[in-house]
Each structure stands twice: as C-alpha cells, then as structure tokens.
C-alpha cells in the first residue's frame, strides 16, 4: 500500500528533460486552473514531485524557475478562468463542464459562502480548483478583489508545494506526511461520490 501511494504522490517525472519537465509542470498547473478539462489532473502531486527532483544532486531543474513559473502559470490559469466566466456566463459553463457539471452547485455554494477566501482555498481542492475562478467571473466578482485572491492562492498552493517537495528530499517526515495526505485525499475521492450516489438512491426511493 505504501509503495502504491508513493507512486501516486511521486510520479516518475525524472525521465523527461528539463524543458519537458518545465512544460509539463507549468502546463498542468495552467490546465487545472484555466480550463475545465484539467480538473482531473494530479497537479498537487506533480508540484511536490517537481520540488523533489529539483533538490536532487545534478538536477536539471532550478528551484527559483520552478517557483516563479508555477506561480505565474497558476495566476494566468485562474485569470483565464475568471474572464471566461465573466464574458461567456453560466450557460457556457454548464455546457463546457459536461459530466463534471454535477460539481457546479457545490462549487457555487462554496463561493457564495466564502467569496475571496474561496478563491484562495479552492487551490487545495481539485474540482473546486477548476470551477471557482470561472464562478467568480460569472458572479461578476470585482477583478481587483479576485486578482488579490488569485495571487495569494497561487503562492500558498503552487509555490509552497514545490518548496515542500524540495524540503522533503532532506526531511523524510515531510514525504511521509505527503503520502498520508495523498492517502486521505484518494480515500475521500472514492468515498464522497459513493456517499452521494447512496443519498441519491435513497432520495429516489422516498419519492
């Protein structure tokens, strides 16, 4: 089990060259936050792993380049999502979401409840990471307010995960903690849809 979690939390990226790694990491970060097709991508795991690779001897990766690039990609991704929602509206969001549209009501409720903090916190929740910037746009959140939350979220999520991976190379307990968090996240991703399915079945049975 531990080896399986390690593989999920530490995917084999070292076979790619430096340019390939940068493009992969920055592309995943942008796709997760700037397009709805990227909500299933393992962004957090890739960021942590990129930090691990940067810490290794003779690594082709530069930690400053990773941190700056990831932060900019995350900011740009959320910005694209925001303006897509602002200009195209909720009907476009529903069409674009496809099968993932069942997440939309929960994401909208999360945004309505927490506003600015939702844009920051959504970075740490995969399906919210894809929806919240667009929802902020459809809700016409003032751009200056959105932009400040966007920058804070990008730094807290992207930059810190890369730095955590970098630190884990010399601090084994950080990696162990990451695997534990990954295990909980994987379990939650399995249990949550199952619970929702059971609730829907019970609701249909009562009606």
The helicity comes to: over 70%
Q: Which runs of at least 5 residues are low in confidence (pLDDT < 50)?
A: 1-10
Roughly what is the average pLDDT, rounded to an integer?
76
What characterizes the major β-sheet? Answer: none
Helix and strand composition category: mainly alpha
Tell me the Rg in angstroms. 18 Å
Helix tally equals 9
In percent, how much strand structure appears in the residues? Answer: under 5%
Give your account of this protein's structure:
By secondary structure, the chain is mainly α. It contains 9 helices and no strands. Helix 2 runs parallel beside helix 4, helix 4 packs across helix 8 and helix 8 packs across helix 9. The longest helix has about 35 residues. The N terminus is likely disordered.
Summarize this structure briefly.
This protein is an all-alpha fold and 207 residues long.
Layout: helices, strands, pairs:
Elements lengths: L1 H8 L8 H17 L8 H13 L7 H35 L6 H11 L1 H6 L4 H13 L4 H26 L3 H35 L1
Helix pairs in contact: 1-9, 2-3, 2-4, 2-7, 3-8, 4-7, 4-8, 5-7, 8-9
What attributes does this structure have?
single chain, 0% strand, mainly alpha, globular, 207 residues, 9 helices
């Amino acid at each position: 089990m531990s080896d399986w979690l390690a593989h999920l939390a530490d995917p084999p990226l070292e076979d790619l060259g430096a340019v390939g790694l940068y493009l992969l990491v920055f592309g995943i970060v942008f796709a997760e936050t700037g397009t709805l097709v990227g909500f299933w991508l393992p962004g957090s795991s890739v960021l942590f792993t990129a930090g691990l690779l940067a810490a290794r001897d003779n690594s082709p990766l530069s930690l400053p380049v990773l941190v700056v690039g990831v932060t900019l990609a995350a900011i740009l991704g959320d910005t694209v999502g925001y303006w897509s929602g602002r200009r195209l509206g909720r009907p476009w969001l529903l069409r674009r979401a496809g099968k993932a549209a069942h997440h939309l009501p929960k994401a909208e409720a999360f945004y309505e409840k927490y506003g600015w903090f939702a844009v920051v916190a959504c970075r740490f929740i995969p399906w919210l990471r894809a929806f919240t910037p667009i929802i902020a746009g459809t809700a016409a959140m003032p751009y200056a307010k959105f932009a400040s939350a966007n920058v804070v979220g990008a730094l807290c999520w992207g930059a810190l995960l890369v730095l955590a991976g970098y630190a884990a190379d010399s601090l084994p307990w950080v990696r162990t903690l990451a695997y534990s968090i990954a295990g909980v996240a994987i379990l939650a991703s399995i249990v949550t849809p199952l619970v929702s399915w059971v609730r829907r079945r019970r609701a249909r049975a009562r009606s």
